[in-house]
């Protein structure tokens, strides 16, 4: 495979749609002059890649019109690249023209310049989505539960040890989200794995930068372990009641210091509180 080229393989039974941008803060209006700033009633301006991610996490705005009579789903599919089931497609390359029709090849090269790019990936039914940064030499594969790295030099061989990003299930408008809100004793959250409150409004995310963060619905951080850059690899709800972040070498870098207090499970609650409970369901 050529350098500074990203391919995407689809191992699902439905199409996936991929929006490629320089970063999550990329503002459409800076370059997409014929689109400008989009607006959704009840949400506000849709002007950056990170706004796409906020909307994709709820069905509330999916069917709303955003511009020129387009619904959000129609808009997203219109500015994204479609990869059909079983297909492998080049979604980014510094040596070819921009896959997004709004940018000229020269403009594309000037913006990206061979650096990391942000991928926003959505299934055709809009029930699953994920957004992450990727090196411009890496390629990815959509599978049932996540998007994983392809083994270097291949396009269809899964290599999750090198990179994986779990799908985020779309949150229904009326709050009957079925995501997992509980980490039991001896349970582990790895990179980019999460707990989500039952009402879908709060998320505990073990980030790939090693930081453990609670986010609200609009992706605003409410609390963090402040362990980014320290090599955190996983969060463990230990059977001794202690909640611990470990590095790859199993050395701890953060702990709740609740060992010996009878903690049995960790719950991301619908009120935004993250609570360790004992077997009798009493908080510690």
From TrEMBL:
CDD domains named among the record's database cross-references: B_lectin (cd00028)
Species per Swiss-Prot/TrEMBL record: Methanococcus voltae
Taxonomic classification: Archaea, Methanobacteriati, Methanobacteriota, Methanomada group, Methanococci
InterPro entries: Bulb-type_lectin_dom (IPR001480), Bulb-type_lectin_dom_sf (IPR036426)
The protein, known as: Bulb-type lectin domain-containing protein
Bulb-type lectin domain residues: 180-284
């Amino acid at each position: 495979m050529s350098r500074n080229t990203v391919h995407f393989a689809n191992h699902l039974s439905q199409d996936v749609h991929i929006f490629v941008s320089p970063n999550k803060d990329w503002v459409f209006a800076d370059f997409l002059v014929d689109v400008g700033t989009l607006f959704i009633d009840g949400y506000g301006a849709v002007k950056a890649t990170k706004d796409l991610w906020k909307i994709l996490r709820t069905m509330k705005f999916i069917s709303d019109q955003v511009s020129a009579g387009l619904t959000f789903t129609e808009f997203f599919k219109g500015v994204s690249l479609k990869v059909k089931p079983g297909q492998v497609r080049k979604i980014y390359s510094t040596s070819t023209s921009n896959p997004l029709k709004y940018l000229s090849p020269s403009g594309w090269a000037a913006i990206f310049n061979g650096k990391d790019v942000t991928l926003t990936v959505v299934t055709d039914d809009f029930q699953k989505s994920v957004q992450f940064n990727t090196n411009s030499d890496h390629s990815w594969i959509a599978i049932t539960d996540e998007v994983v790295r392809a083994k270097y030099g291949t396009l269809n061989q899964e290599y999750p040890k090198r990179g994986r990003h779990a799908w985020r299930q779309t949150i229904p408008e009326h709050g009957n989200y079925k995501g997992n809100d509980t980490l039991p004793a001896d349970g582990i959250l790895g990179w980019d794995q999460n707990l989500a409150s039952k009402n879908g409004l709060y998320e505990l995310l073990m980030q790939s930068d090693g930081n453990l963060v609670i986010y609200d619905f609009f992706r605003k951080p409410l609390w963090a372990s402040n362990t980014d850059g320290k090599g955190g690899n996983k969060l463990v709800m230990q059977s001794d009641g202690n909640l611990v972040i470990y590095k790859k070498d199993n050395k701890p870098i953060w702990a709740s210091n609740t060992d010996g207090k009878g903690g049995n499970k960790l719950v991301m609650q619908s009120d935004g509180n993250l609570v360790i409970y004992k077997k009798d369901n009493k908080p510690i």
